[in-house]
Design brief:
Chains A, B: Its EC number is 2.3.1.35, 2.3.1.1. The structure is a homodimer. Chain A is an alpha+beta fold and about 400 residues long. Chain A is about 30% helix and about 25% strand. In chain A, helix 2 links the parallel strand 6 (about 85-90) and strand 7. The two termini of chain A are about 35 Å apart.
Chain lengths: ~400, ~400
């Protein structure tokens, strides 16, 4: 994880902005409308469309064995390494909906292919990815969704950039839309949007991310860049390595800039974008009152460091202590002590926001007085058995989290 | 896990009572006093003493790599398979206290050996187990503890059964003491006490259990019985298989009944006792409003069933849903879907309290209307890929849990 860039910051040889999204690159259009899937009447259908001339694409999907219908569909479509459009809905996950749910996804893609073709862009359903987010287990209201697909194409065709509306339309319990854009001085660009808010236990925190770029790149290049970036960012946002039934991260490249960055440049830009969107997701996590990063250093390997950091980041007692601004370092030791990694149990050191609280597995002077009342807590654990380091982003465990998650479906 | 026996129930060929504890068998004495370790002035020091004629013993300890000083001490002592006494304190875990903390444990055992010898029972420190529970990271107030060791021996010597006071003295955030006793018709008996209350994330939920019996048994027999019982009970209480720095379960047999039960009889009695104490621990877990059992059946093996049940039992979103009495079965599917076990993702069925809510991975009619407002929720998940079954006990995730755990050390 790199340090979180602020909007306008120079990163990866370019400029990162949070004021633009998926339509920042050349040749991408987007729209967001209210299809009536959400009872609230809020925006709930988003479209991202690539005008080409190329349609290279890559995707990373949930590792959950229970996969939503749109994930099964989009994985299949991505086999071709080519996407013209992504249609996303909030208000329903279309997960655990059986063969009927898969037919709904398929019908949505077919309907969009037809609407885009009518609009003048010959498109097949096999060039369209579908994403859904919301409650698991209910069928989508297709009587509302299918007419809305035609409407959103009309909306996209008529207007200017609809990137902001698209970012709004994929929100569930998110309180703010998440967008980012990256501009490389050699005149190629990248845009992105993300949603996801249940960060403390991401097994139902569907994360949807769409990245767009006008760079020239092959599907293989995109796949490399995307896998590398998600491994270091979204995979380390929180906790237990678990994924929802619907998690999807897509990257579309249309070559409209006619600039072909090197793999290293592409990697750096995708990493910077994913890192910034991950930071935005953490900051808006359900019920969060603290932004927490956990670094484990001195582990036998990066993998062991990551396992240790996850064990701490997912520990409910550690999270509750942070909610209470309590520098209870003993809970950090107890949490890392159960991780299946190599430890020297009497040589572990811990600091909170740079203040040593535990040295060689015993309390440091003043440890109980360290002030954790601010919104950011950085935990650093030094194992002293090797060179492996990894950082995980997480949050505290608050009343707000329990409140938000104890009355979701009913 | 057997069904939870009620007090007075016939189990394992005998009678189980909750009105007696460690002094129920012949030849055991106990006491509990206020040593001043707890600032509140409540009971905080307990003693369990075996009058013999035999002193066979076995112990099971935390798997946490970060082990408290008393665990390191008691593991060493148990190498000899022999115990005359157990001294237990609440008000401080004596964990992460370095070599000085270990010396404190050693000094406590030496002091008790001296006091017992002065009282007329020649005892060595190597026959004494030590247990501590409370906050990690602080040294114990030895100026209060050492004089209290002499006092508690005097207390034990003077009075009648002090089992109830001992069970009180080991409480931390427990709201009630936990005791049980088992009487076999062939006139041998077993007693026990337990403490532990942070059940939702047991990495700091120190569990201390002392079991006593007047049966004749070798250390090897006790070890077999204890490992078998803890595997099926305390190891399946909650969640993520994690242990605190201090978890200790001890079993002492003094042969005072002169009856030598068979291994099967001993196994059954120890299992019944551990099961009942585990049920008492769950019912008193921090902030609990629901007692939850999760059974996974039809897994490839018992081990895979257990992995699946733990994944569900530890999922924060599942726990929050139960706190809200929300029959959100989709979260159960998402949770089991990330378990590293063999699944047929479209053939999973779930019931809540016997009501089918999900059949073949899609919602059952009426699933959203299932009433979970009562205090007990039984989740049954049928995987349909084998014969393996396992059950885990857990609780909901409530405001009370967050409250209790967000201000512990400060």
């Amino acid at each position: 994880m790199t340090d979180t860039p602020v909007s306008g910051a120079e990163v990866a040889g370019g400029i990162l902005l949070r004021t633009q999204g998926v339509t920042a690159p050349l040749g991408f259009r987007a729209a967001g409308i209210a299809a009536g899937i959400k009872a609230s009447g809020k925006l709930d259908l988003a479209l991202v469309f690539s005008e080409g001339p190329e349609y290279a694409a890559a995707g990373v999907f949930t590792r959950n064995q229970v996969k939503a219908a749109p994930v099964l569909w989009s994985q299949q479509v991505l086999g071709g390494g080519r996407l013209r459009a992504v249609i996303l809905n909030s208000g329903g996950a279309n997960a655990c909906t059986g063969p009927g749910g898969f037919q709904d996804t398929h019908a949505t893609a077919e309907e969009l292919a037809k609407a885009l073709s009518n609009w003048g862009t010959e498109t097949g359903a096999g060039e369209i990815a579908v994403c859904s987010t919301g409650l698991i287990g209910d069928r989508l209201p297709m009587d509302k969704l299918l007419p809305a697909v035609t409407e959103i194409v009309r909306e996209m065709g008529g207007g200017l950039s609809g990137g902001a509306e698209a970012a709004q339309a994929i929100m569930t319990t998110d309180t703010v839309p998440k967008q980012a854009a990256f501009h490389h001085p050699a005149t190629w660009n990248m845009g992105g949007m993300a949603k996801g808010a249940g960060m403390l236990a991401p097994s139902l925190a569907t994360m949807l991310v769409v990245l767009t770029t006008d760079a020239v790149a092959t599907p293989e290049q995109l796949d490399l860049a995307l896998r590398n970036a998600t491994r270091l960012t979204f995979d380390r946002l929180d906790v237990d390595g678990s994924c929802s039934t619907n998690d999807t991260v897509l990257l579309l490249a249309n070559g409209a800039s006619a600039v072909a960055p090197s793999q290293a440049e592409l990697d750096a830009a995708v990493l910077a974008m994913c890192d910034d969107l991950a930071a935005q997701l953490m900051a808006d996590a359900e019920g969060v009152t603290k932004r927490v990063t956990v670094t484990v250093a001195g582990a036998l390997s990066e993998e062991e460091a990551l396992t240790g950091a996850r064990a701490i980041a997912r520990d409910s007692l550690v999270k509750c202590a942070f909610f209470g601004s309590d520098p209870n370092w003993g809970r950090v030791l107890a949490a890392v002590g159960i991780a299946p990694i190599t430890l020297a149990p009497d040589r572990i050191s811990v600091s909170f926001n740079g203040n040593p609280v535990c040295v060689n597995s015993t309390g440091a002077p003043g440890a109980r007085e360290v002030d954790l009342s601010g919104p950011d807590i950085h935990v650093r654990v030094e194992l002293g058995v090797g060179e492996g380091t990894a950082t995980v982003r997480t949050t505290d465990l608050s009343y707000g989290y329990v409140e938000e998650n104890s009355a979701y479906s009913s």
